């Protein structure tokens, strides 16, 4: 094969075939490269895009980066259906097959240790958002509704009182959401084999509504996934005004140490 080698993941040998029409980064179909009993899932990508200099420039191009991350994730998702992959970082590229084999040899013990730990397990993501009721702050003299009560602010003093009431209501929702998020994380962590707390997502970056109070990942045996989903559903039934978002099952990005970072890709 000519071109550079883009590596998606390291796996143990698996019997099930990937989808015949599956394509990855740069429209290239993924292939299996076997070495020392491990498999690197790779595809061939052009030097014009993935050599060091053009790749550095592309990583500043959000449109290119998003398309590449989606293609990368498509291959990881396909692998997750048929095996337990150890996904590598986005844009992990080597000169040729020999470079991939050298990488496998250098990290072989780590790869085997992590694959042993992840075998038969998937990652589920859970986010909790506080969503206060939308209010329209009244301005003196404009007759705006105060806090959804149907009353109007007749003076500056009334306006300030209404604003304080709205602020207290928002703070109350955030406090309840924070307490709920803590209880939910404790419950899900007790069920899961492992968990990771990530930094709350910025609404400006994610585009999600509400204040992100919990952004967590849970490592769950595949056979227990249905029970885990049911547990989340039961817990969120008791959370009026609080939004719970469940995603997965994913490859276990959050539990692969330094090898992978989950791409931030819009569905």
UniProtKB/TrEMBL annotation:
Residues 133-143 have a biased composition (Low complexity). The keyword Magnesium does not apply. Its main location: other. It comes from the Bacteria. It holds the Pfam family GvpL_GvpF. Transmembrane segments: none annotated. This is Gas vesicle protein. It comes from Streptomyces caeruleatus. The lineage of its organism: Bacteria, Bacillati, Actinomycetota, Actinomycetes, Kitasatosporales.
